[in-house]
Amino acid sequence: MNEGRHIPVLLADVVQLLRPSPGHVFLDGTLGRGGHTAALLAAGATVDAFDRDADAIAATAVTLADFVTSGHLRLHRAAFADAPRLLGEQRYDGILLDLGVSSPQLDEAHRGFSFQANGPVSMVMDDRDAPLSERLAAVDEPALARVLREYGDEPNARRVAQTILFGRPWAGTRALAEAVAAVAAPTRGIHRATKSFQALRIWVNDEIGQLERALVDLPALLAPGGRFAVIAFHSLEDRPVKQAFHALAGVGAPTDLYGNPVVAPAFRLVERKARKGEDRDPNPRARSARLRVLERISSPAHSPARLPPASPERA
Ligand SMILES: C[S@@+](CC[C@H](N)C(=O)[O-])C[C@H]1O[C@@H](n2cnc3c(N)ncnc32)[C@H](O)[C@@H]1O
């Protein structure tokens, strides 16, 4: 299932918090090589699994074939933000997003994510999307510098953007990485192109846009008592998750004289603080992981008639 390389991040915590059991139905929005999904299936649950990467779907269709045959695993090659549109009336006991790229995507040079191994200038999770080379052909310097600054925190964003645009078209990821590293700000312990490559990957795959849409639309897919777990790997991801979960759970919302919320929230935080990968999981990929879990309240006091609209507005 993990091809000996990919270890699911915070697996024990995810299973403990999502509490899979026979008859439960889960939505895994980031199937990858199926590590988390396999644990949900092993507990007897049914899973609707999404991945926009054809390789991920193909690999798990083989490794988890028995569950596909038995109808416990339904594979969807699509973006998780499109799940509400594609799934119809199903309501879920749990939803999981394990954000970012998978180890196979990073490791396989032909996917074009790597600055160590040479590959095409691609970086797309979904090969139907425009590759990085095409996106670079159509972007101007201020917009690219903004991407590098906002998604990569690159202090020399303007110089890096100029260098990338000047060198187009790039023969491969290694040449691009070397050029970026020559002008990027010094970094300690990591390749100088790391921040820019992260930024380009997030941009090309619209990772933040996907997450923001999911945070608005996926909570409405939870059954009463259902839980929504998100594993984020950097603050660009974790900040919107925290803000959305806190808003849905009514954290900081107006209260009456007795300290009770004026509008009863439809959700609650399962734990106030994120679980941190570095405290709980020896897997190196888990080091920066943050796991947050939201629960749809099931008490009669919070009957669906009193729930806020399915897609709450958020700034
Ligand atoms: C970190 S890996 C998930 C690993 C998985 N939990 C496991 O145990 O093997 C993230 C996966 O989610 C997919 N992915 C990322 N963003 C996506 C999105 N918006 N929609 C669908 N799949 C996405 C990637 O293609 C990748 O395969």
Features:
alpha/beta, DNA polymerase, domain 1, 8-stranded mixed β-sheet, globular, disordered N terminus, disordered C terminus, binds S-adenosylmethionine
Detailed description of the structure:
- With 315 residues, the protein is α/β, with parallel strands linked by helices.
- The protein folds into two domains: 11-99 and 208-306, Vaccinia Virus protein VP39 (Rossmann fold); 109-205, DNA polymerase, domain 1, CATH 1.10.150.
- Helix content is 38%, strand content 14%.
- It contains 14 helices and eight strands.
- The protein has helices at residues 11-18, 35-42, 54-63, 65-70, 83-87, 103-107, 132-137, 141-152, 157-166, 173-183, 194-204, 207-217, 235-248, 277-280, and strands at residues 25-28, 46-51, 73-77, 92-98, 222-232, 267-269, 275-276, 290-296.
- Strands 1, 2, 3, 4, 5, 6, 7 and 8 form an eight-stranded mixed sheet that branches.
- Helix 2 links the parallel strand 1 and strand 2.
- Helix 8 (141-152) crosses helix 9 (157-166).
- The radius of gyration is 21 Å and the shape is globular.
- Residues 1-5 and 302-315 have low confidence and may be disordered.
- The protein binds S-adenosylmethionine (SAM).
Shape: globular
Low-confidence stretches: 1-5, 302-315
Named CATH architecture of the largest domain: 3-Layer(aba) Sandwich
Number of helices: 14
How helical, in percent, are the residues?
Answer: 25-40%
Structural class comes to alpha/beta
